[in-house]
Fold:
Amino acid sequence: MSTNQDVALLTEMAVFARVVECGSFSGAARQLGSTPSATSRAVARLEKALGTRLLLRTTRKLRLSESGREVYAGCTDMVQAAQAVMASAGCYDEVPRGRVCVSVPKAVGRFVLHPHMPEFLQRYPEVDIQLRLDDRPLDLIEAGIDLAIRITDQPPPGLMGRPLVAIEHMLCATPAYLERYGTPRHPQDLKQHSCIYLGEAPADARWKFVRAGKSVTVPVRGRYAANHTGVRLDAALHHLGIASLPDFTARQSLQAGHLLQVLPEWSFRTHYSGQAWILYPPTRHLPPKLRVLMTFLAERLGQAPTLSPDT
Structure:
């Protein structure tokens, strides 16, 4: 493709990026002040010039093809680079505005993010937040997600990110339960107790502990299992057993003395333990609405912001 053709297709690239962001030709046309047919033709011209199908059209929605994902990332970079040029010349409004869709695990969203959202919305009156509480892996571009928070060792391939907050898991029970049934001194003692666990898969009833470099896995049982941390917390507070809980769920009850931590000298390992990362599609320039939200969350969740140089 010649340089002249590259330049001629800049408009089509911008239109294509807007179609992906809106999820439809009609939505993009409304934002661009155009018509759905003209918007569709612009994308068709880009597909013809590139020699590849970018969008898979169905009767209900548009989906990106494999090549479309790569082209979308490049088009987004192009649009954001143009915005950065305008900003440097004082021609682009840097006031954070627009909707931000954030995908977050259910418990983290309810107990960690949600309590801070009223303050954020008050501070940035032109930014709207949509929280999607979901523990499943998601395709950010296909699902229309701007930011995702997931517990992971490092960003998955194709995504950028930074660590946000550490998530620890612990075992808790009420003083009344422990007084009646005894306090475990070793993970193996849990076999004699009623344990409140996740219950989604057989592995959830096998609790793993680490101390001084040695690991112990213990099969547990109990009369109550629930895949919601709030339910397990409430069950523990009703003296039903020893519950596995994220630290942010149990913290208030521990501070009030309603719960006691069990086996605190052992590290309790689950797939829900580790570092929560904030993830986003690769880009050289973050829009102001994303930048301020990421900085706000880093500040409120206790970790100093470490924005990459490009942001």
The first helix runs from residue 3 to 8. The mean pLDDT is 86.
